Amino acid sequence: MTGKKAANRNDILNKIRATGRKKLNPESLAKEVLANNRVALSQAITLVESNSEKDEAAAAELLRILLPHSGKSVRIAISGVPGAGKSTFIEAYGKFLINQGFKVAVLAIDPSSEVAGGSILGDKTRMNILASDPNAFIRPSPNSGNAGGVARRTRECIFLCEAAGYEYILVETVGVGQSETAARSMVDVFMLLGIAGAGDELQGIKRGIMEMADIVVINKADGDNLGRAKAARQEIQRSLHLFPHTDSGWVPRAGICSSTEGTGIAEINRWITEFLELVNLSGYYKDNRARQAVWWFRESIRERLLNDFRHSVPASTMEKLAEDVKEGLISVSEATSTAMKIYRENINQG
């Protein structure tokens, strides 16, 4: 699907969503979210995720009302190589937390469909048991090609879930790609899942991502694979000790688990608790969240500028410039200068 067709489709979807929300205002919606109305929470997330300019003010007001009620959850990002069993692990860990008396929200970031531009939404169907639990909330969102394996509004969605009373927010990222920085910059704990038995146990896991991990877990450690999983854990633990010391003072740990059998989950949860106790005592937890807020402020500025650019420079102009670059008629530098000139002229006229 071309960029123009995808944009038209998104406009149609946003209009449909806006029609479904027209009777809701930020104040009443916020009240329902605070009352843990899961339908209202879904509507609130849809509002915040909307690309429609008409929804921007309402979304901002909703976040302003709910922001004082956020910030009290444990935020955990769960990433990993394809096939590592992230969804299965999240369901097992989510059930474990619920059995401990907690409420769990899962923000499952789905790869965007290359055909329709929407979310594949496979994770929710794979977490049937967790999705049916009244103390769990699962929201799949398309990443829409965003870098870092997270959706455009994941951070705001975390705030909404916290306001609704969810004490653990599990963010399932698209997977190990070029950068997981965005995911790391919105959570307290970054967990990396891997699997054993592929020959090179570190295959597909880049050093930069390993260095971000607080906990590395070898999943599917059961049956004939148990021995290989234990060997992989030892190899990864040795690798972790070679990395520079973390700013948090935490020494990253490697463990094994079986999501299907439920083994190893309690130990991983104990590590998370120990990590949070350490960073709370040192003051790192508070400082880190403050740094994350500043990081996302700057990212928001970049996003606003990019959106401004897209609205100021006609798509047809961008397509023509891209085609000229492709055909070698003009240089990338000349095309960029032309687009920026049009952007500045339109901004000045506005």
Count of separate DSSP helical elements: 15
Q: Strand-and-helix sequence, N→C?
A: HHHHEHEHHEHEHEHEHEHHHH
The count of domains is: 3
Overall strand count: 7
**CA gyration radius, whole angstroms:** 22 Å
CATH topology assignment of the largest domain: Rossmann fold
CATH superfamily (homologous) name of the largest domain: P-loop containing nucleotide triphosphate hydrolases
How far the N terminus sits from the C terminus, by CA atoms, comes to: 32 Å
List segments where confidence is low: pLDDT < 50 over at least 5 consecutive residues: 15-21, 112-123, 144-149
The biggest beta sheet reads: 7 strands, parallel
Helix content: 40-55%
Return the CATH class of the largest domain.
Alpha Beta
| CATH architecture descriptor text of the largest domain | 3-Layer(aba) Sandwich
